[in-house]
Backbone:
């Protein structure tokens, strides 16, 4: 399409959109406040659209071509929800190959958003739900269809449709003798890293209650309401969390005559206002403090107003994930909905028998028992949490099990595993957004640069430090956190280790040119076809002639390549963790480390005879010369005769 046609089409759509928006404007004389609000909203959406365009151009990794060979380590991603697809797109965009394992079929793409009702929409502003830089929202609070559409576009843009295995339930993840990860069985390939992206919402939770079989109406889970007739009916919603909001939206949209929300406890509700949401997420302590009384008092005064009776007094706003919805208050004030604090006794033929409690009376305490009658009962009881049992047993050992992991996602025993968005319990401002990319890029940094990789000892010390800093929290140290606290974790992670400094712009912004050139050039120099974290893991199961090669045979080949005696061939044989030279930092480090190992090994082999510096210099020169691919007899192969 010609540039003139593109511009013409864009102007036509802009005019059409403006005309439609003008028709929906309120009368500025009769409704001046609403009119001004709509004008301001227009301006914000315009600026937001410009921001999204620039964010895509600046921060979205370039999708590789269909014939491009991805040379960097391979990552297994478990789950094809928003987190799984987003992390896979980041990996692919930065040159790391992936395979996505999804237990459901293709209709499961998008995770929990593929299961909810068509009327469900974001409770937070889409500005806070930019799970990838390429996402482009058309509205402040997109619905389910728009969210799924963005996920599918991202999935196709990065060629993930050819890298996703549907109907594949992951039962176990383990390491082979080379330290590579295997998902279920070797037939699925081997991987250097694993991202668990199973989320926090699995199958619907549908508890059984006394008398359910006696109820004459219909009973549904809150996620199964699409197509249910609620017009002019009385709907009883059991539950007071996000699922209850989902059911309330549906009932209101379908024209229910009356809605009862039966909640066992009071829960904080905050306005559907992106400014308020961001301000609350800026509590860097990530816990309830003396200063928390200020936002709590302001919410009760200006948001709850005449409904302060349903505001919690027994817990602070920084102790549990709040509901984000302004419509709840509007519907309660209009009389269309009624919030009842109660315990469920049993179902009856006409409704639900409950024990209504006054404010401050604990669950199960004394109250007034009465029957709430209705035509339809909705179980807003949430979802079962997906299991992480497929991970190795050592991930759950002692006091360092989830969510008490490094940065809450890395098990201390395995820094090559990251469980993104599936270990947290409660938080403010953490749904979707920047942190998925940061977590993914931290994992990639650990995979290609071992000097940035934390040891188990230091990962556990960071966990202990966080527990000390949050010792006064009424919840566990990792049971609740805010978005600013999460960003502080990332900042601390990068700055505490000088070897991570060069990765800072890559980790935080995903800028491809910030990937240290020395790392990439060395990988390309030694392995033209694919880079690996270290030499021993470069032995690929896909190449027949090296499939059965063991560690000693590998170093025999390396010694021959270096023009050294066979005795040197055993250099590095044994434990890769303490003797295998690593090629993923830079050439000077490689040569110095290899030189040290040559001297140490020759000392042991030759007894009192010591390696002279001349011999070391000879080895260094041999390495530099032979590392050039143009010195290979076969330009299609590495000088080490290891290909993949």
Residues:
């Amino acid at each position: 399409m010609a540039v003139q046609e593109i511009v013409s089409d864009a102007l036509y759509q802009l005019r059409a959109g403006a005309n439609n928006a003008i028709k929906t404007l309120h009368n500025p004389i009769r409704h001046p406040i609403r009119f001004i609000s709509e004008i301001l909203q227009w301006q914000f959406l315009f600026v937001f659209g410009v921001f999204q365009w620039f964010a895509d151009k600046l921060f979205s990794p370039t999708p590789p071509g269909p014939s491009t060979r991805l040379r960097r380590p391979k990552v297994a991603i478990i789950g094809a929800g928003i987190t799984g697809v987003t992390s896979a797109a980041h990996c692919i965009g930065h040159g790391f190959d992936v395979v996505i394992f999804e237990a459901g079929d293709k209709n499961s793409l998008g995770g929990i958003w593929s299961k909810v009702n068509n009327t469900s929409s974001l409770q937070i502003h889409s500005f806070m739900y930019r799970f990838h830089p390429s996402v482009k929202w058309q509205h402040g609070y997109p619905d389910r269809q728009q969210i799924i559409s963005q996920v599918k576009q991202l999935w196709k843009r990065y060629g993930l449709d050819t890298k996703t295995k549907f109907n594949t339930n992951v039962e176990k993840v383990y390491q082979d003798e080379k330290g590579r990860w295997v998902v279920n069985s070797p037939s699925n390939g081997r991987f250097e890293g694993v991202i668990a992206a199973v989320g926090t919402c699995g199958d619907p939770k549908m508890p059984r209650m006394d008398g359910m079989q006696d109820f004459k109406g219909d009973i549904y889970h809150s996620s199964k309401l699409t197509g249910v007739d609620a017009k002019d009916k009385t709907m009883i919603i059991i539950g007071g969390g996000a699922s209850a909001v989902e059911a309330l939206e549906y009932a209101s949209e379908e024209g229910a005559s009356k809605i009862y929300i039966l909640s066992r406890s009071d829960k904080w509700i905050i306005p559907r206002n992106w400014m308020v949401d961001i301000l609350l997420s800026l509590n860097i302590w990530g816990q309830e403090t003396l200063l928390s009384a200020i936002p709590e008092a302001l919410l009760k005064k200006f948001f709850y107003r005449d409904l302060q009776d349903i505001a919690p007094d027994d817990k602070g706003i920084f102790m549990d994930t709040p509901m984000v919805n302004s419509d709840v208050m509007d519907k309660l004030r209009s009389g269309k909905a009624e919030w009842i604090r109660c315990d469920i006794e049993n179902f009856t033929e006409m409704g639900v028998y409950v024990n209504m409690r006054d404010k401050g009376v604990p669950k199960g305490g004394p109250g007034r028992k009465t029957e709430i009658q209705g035509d339809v009962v909705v179980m807003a009881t949430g979802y079962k949490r997906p299991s992480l049992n497929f991970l190795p047993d050592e991930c759950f050992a002692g006091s360092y099990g989830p969510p008490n992991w490094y940065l809450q996602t890395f098990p201390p025993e395995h820094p090559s595993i990251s469980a993104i968005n599936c270990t947290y319990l409660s938080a403010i401002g953490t749904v979707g957004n920047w942190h998925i990319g940061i977590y993914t890029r931290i994992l990639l940094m650990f995979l290609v640069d071992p000097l940035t990789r934390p040891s188990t000892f230091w990962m556990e010390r960071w966990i202990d430090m966080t527990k000390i800093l949050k010792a006064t929290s009424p919840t566990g140290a990792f049971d609740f956190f805010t978005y600013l606290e999460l960003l502080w974790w990332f900042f601390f992670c990068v700055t505490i280790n000088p070897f991570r400094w060069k990765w800072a712009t890559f980790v935080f912004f995903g800028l491809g040119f910030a990937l240290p050139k020395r790392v990439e050039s060395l990988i390309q120099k030694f392995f033209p076809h694919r880079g690996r974290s270290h030499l021993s893991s470069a032995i690929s199961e896909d190449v027949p002639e090296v499939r059965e090669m063991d560690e000693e045979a590998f170093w025999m080949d390396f010694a021959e390549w270096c023009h050294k005696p066979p005795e040197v061939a055993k250099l590095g044989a044994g434990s890769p963790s303490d003797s295998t030279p690593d090629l993923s930092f830079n050439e000077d480090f490689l040569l110095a480390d290899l030189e040290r190992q040559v001297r140490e090994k020759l000392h042991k082999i030759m007894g009192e005879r010591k390696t002279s510096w001349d011999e070391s210099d000879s080895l260094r020169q041999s390495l530099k010369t032979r590392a050039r691919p143009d010195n290979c007899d076969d330009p299609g192969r590495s000088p080490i005769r290891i290909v993949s």
